[in-house]
Amino acid sequence: MAHGQSTEEFKNMKRSTKIISIVIIFFFIITAVIVARTMVGNYFKKKFSKRPPPGIIVKVVEQKLFQNTIETFGTAVPTQIKSYNIEKYEILEPIEYNTKVKAGDIIAKLKNRNIITPFDGIIGKRDFSNDIDVSKSSIILNLEDTSVLFVDVDIPETFAPYVKKDQNVDIKFSGNNLKKYSGIVESTASRINTNKRSLPVRIKLNNPNNELLSGSLLEVSINYNGRNSLSILDTSLLMEGDNVYVYKVDKENTVRKTEIEIGLRKQGIVEVKSGLKNGDTVVAEGLKKTRPNGKIKPIKYGSKPKSSNWKKKDKPAKTEQKKSKFDWIKKLNIFKKTDSKKEENKNK
């Protein structure tokens, strides 16, 4: 009995040991699977969770010429003008209008006299508009020297201290805003006009090719307080209340939010008074994709994108015939009779 009982106990112990081993192996497998999945997940998380830095357009801060301007309008007046009242019956030969003449030329041959030009200029005609009877019998001949034009303008008295003789002036014709003419301040009045509260100023403009006609309405911009200052694009500005910021890019391509002080703004360029140095790099475009203290991939402003090397396949010429799926059948020539058979049929 004792021997049988010990054998039974040994079998039970062996069975329980197997069960425990199986359970341990099972839990070991589960643990290994969990650990492996965790390690693989962490690996891919580290690899793909880091987004590449966004490509942002940047521009180097550089110096440009800035100057304040006083803008106004004026009418072009010729440097010299002379008028002649001529009766039509006195004219012996037709007068050539709108032509250039030189001093000493005869511009009108009359019965009793000739009209000779005292200076170089252009001949023009002006009819009477108020008195029709007079305009039928007479004409007014104008001789104008438009090689130099004057423009008289009124400058508000608050700007009077900034206007000096020989100051540079930019001039545009209202009919052609694309072209700019250069002039100078020829003279200024000695006192303020008390009725207009303005300073009368005369602008001198060279017009050698007579592009501008006398009487033209001109846009005048008197420049003053010219200086070289740092400049950035206005798209670089980040406005927060009364404060102005830019994203400055360091050598590690990390952006730093920097406060600056700005001055004039003209044609998309902004003057920087303080906060930046010459040669600094700032974000020019893409402020919404930029984060303070974040990394970026800088793209130089104005750089052209690289052209692709990929080429499209050339289209077949119209004269070329497209290959058909059944061209191989045609090559077999099964539908055509041989030359020998053709001759036999002819002989028959």
Topology:
Blueprint: H1 2-49, E1 55-60, E2 62-87, E3 100-101, E4 106-109, E5 114-116, E6 121-126, H2 132-137, E7 138-156, E8 168-173, E9 176-188, E10 198-206, E11 217-233, E12 238-240, E13 243-249, E14 255-266, E15 269-274, E16 281-285, E17 297-300, H3 327-332, H4 339-347
Parallel strand pairs: 1-17
Antiparallel strand pairs: 1-16, 2-7, 2-11, 3-6, 4-5, 6-7, 7-10, 8-9, 8-11, 9-10, 11-15, 12-13, 13-14, 13-16, 14-15
So what's the overall shape? rod-shaped
Fraction in beta strands: 35-45%
Q: What is the topology, as strand order, of the major beta sheet?
A: 2-7-10-9-8-11
Rg from alpha-carbon coordinates: 46 Å
- The CATH topology label of one domain is conserved putative lor/sdh protein from methanococcus maripaludis s2 fold
The largest sheet, given as strand count, sense and whether it forms a barrel, is: 6 strands, antiparallel, barrel
Order of helices and strands: HEEEEEEHEEEEEEEEEEEHH
Low-confidence stretches: none
**Classification by helices and strands:** alpha+beta
The number of distinct helices, counting runs of at least 4 residues, comes to 4
CATH class of one domain: Mainly Beta
- What is the helical fraction, as a range of percent? 10-25%
CATH architecture grouping of one domain: Beta Barrel
